[in-house]
Amino acid sequence: MTLTIDEMAAFCKRKGFVYPSSELYGGLAGLYDYGPYGTELKNNIKSLWWNYHVQSREDIVGIDGSIISHQGIWKASGHLDAFSDPMAICTKCKHKDRIDTLIEEKTNLPTDGLSMKELNELVKEHKIVCPHCKGAFQELQDFNLMFPVQVGADTSSKGTAYLRGETAQLIFTNFKLVAENSRLKLPFGIAQMGKAFRNEISPRNFLFRLREFEQMDIEYFIHPKQKCPFLKEVENCTLQVYTAEDQEKKKKPTFLTVQKILSKKIMTDWHAYWLAYEHEWFTKLNVNPKNLRVRQHLKKEKSHYALDTWDLEYNFPFGWKEVEGIANRTDYDLKAHSKHSKKDLSIFDEQTKEKIIPHVVAEPSLGVDRSFLIFLLDAFHDDKKRGNILLKLHPRLAPVKAAIFPLVSNKEELTKKARTVYTILKDSVPCTYDKGGSIGRRYARQDELGTPYCITIDFDSLKDDTVTIRERDSTDQKRIKISELKPFILDKLS
Ligand code: ATP
């Protein structure tokens, strides 16, 4: 039986990963708080992403832009005019719902890129009614997703700013300064990680669709004629590919290597590189490649700014859905900001000796919260033999890396020795000390948090300074000297 998203939400609340926000006061839809273990896991996801995409690369630097941002940014980007979803309002109970999602749920038909007229027709044809009271819907309307905020005492529309609807725009508005300060030559990328806000009409599916969420984003700039120099690194990577043509012909996706993808001219070299690079980030962190696929946007689904877009999708309990969008945004954004701000955003390209507005050939834009959900869903095993949940999280993602137990809690020599081991480890290995309950119960508690190592201090430890270390997935146990514990665990984490 596959886990439902509601069961995952309940598990996350029970184990201290994620709580519904403001629950004391009845809660607010689309907002969640991360608990002690969720915060650690989320921080690990973010630091591993930053390390893989920024610190370990010569060609990408990072920024951290403000969340409240000038209305001019969102006018230029098109968000104020066109960042909206189709909304249905019930004629009877006035319930508001996002109609494209509702149609997909009721009919299984894809709705991406459909016009308001086409959506209205589908509502009539499939007799879609209010899920709460079965009342009929009014004529559909657009609902803008941007969150306005009033800045300072100016209550006129001039004082209106916006919570950023995506992290990407702050990269574009800082582009020229970053390019100058970092002295990078094309091709290069600018990365950013942080909160984004969308006033979603009907948030649902736990962390999948939120009103406040985090994005990890890169804008990768090139001279439009530049070829991708990194293909060798990914040419043998295999992706499950779902082209627009295959979707239209109702065919199934196919597994292809990057080499094959390029020889069949399915996408550009840059798109193939970035999709494979992103796919590898997940698979290196233990996500099963069978649960990942790359899907091309249909023509009518593409955003107004995009030449071509591919999504990295995951097989969620509620179907294949986007985790990361990788769009070729061309020079659309830099040109739009140049036009609206009347500032020159072109840079000098050393190679061609021309002044150009670079093109964003790929914009890998990944949600932190959706990644969090994927890592948990993929790691979740209901281990009937053990009689508890086993979270097979990659050790580098695990919120706690090691748990230290005295064999029994009522022998002072043992608890003292166990506290000493805990003190030795805790400055470099996130660990926990637990003396409550039987050893079996304590193992189970750690399995459910995904802790890769449990260390037990027993009576032999008092004689020979060795301990038992138990590995989470295999449950294999071995004796190891206390002095070797720290290098052993650090080696496994590296
Ligand atoms: P969707 O089609 O699911 O609404 P999108 O195409 O609007 O997503 P993008 O604007 O491409 O999403 O944002 C990039 C990434 O940010 C998404 O792939 C997703 O991981 C994350 N994201 C976007 N909207 C939300 C949201 N409301 N809640 C949680 N994560 C989100």
Key features of this structure:
nine-stranded mixed β-sheet; BirA Bifunctional Protein, domain 2; 494 residues; 27% strand; single chain; alpha+beta; Herpes Virus-1; five-stranded mixed β-sheet; binds adenosine-5'-triphosphate; Rossmann fold; 3 domains; 26 strands
Please describe the topology of this protein:
Layout: H1 5-14, E1 18-20, E2 32-34, H2 36-55, E3 60-63, E4 68-69, H3 71-77, H4 79-82, E5 84-89, E6 96-98, H5 99-107, H6 116-125, E7 141-144, E8 147-150, E9 160-163, H7 168-182, E10 188-197, E11 212-222, E12 238-242, H8 244-248, E13 254-257, H9 258-263, H10 269-284, E14 292-296, E15 308-316, E16 319-328, H11 332-341, E17 347-349, E18 354-356, E19 359-367, H12 368-379, E20 380-383, E21 388-391, E22 402-406, H13 412-426, E23 431-433, H14 439-447, E24 453-457, H15 459-464, E25 466-471, E26 477-481, H16 482-493
Parallel strand pairs: 3-10, 12-14, 22-23, 22-24
Antiparallel strand pairs: 1-2, 4-9, 5-6, 5-7, 8-9, 10-11, 11-19, 12-13, 14-15, 15-16, 16-19, 17-18, 20-21, 24-25, 25-26
Helix pairs in contact: 2-12, 3-11
List the ligand species: adenosine-5'-triphosphate
**Number of E strands:** 26
Instruction: Please give the CATH architecture of the largest domain.
Output: 2-Layer Sandwich
Note the total helix count.
Answer: 16
CATH superfamily caption of the largest domain: Bira Bifunctional Protein, Domain 2
Give the overall silhouette. Answer: globular
Classification by helices and strands: alpha+beta
Distance between the termini: 35 Å
Q: Could you report the average pLDDT, rounded to the nearest whole number? A: 96
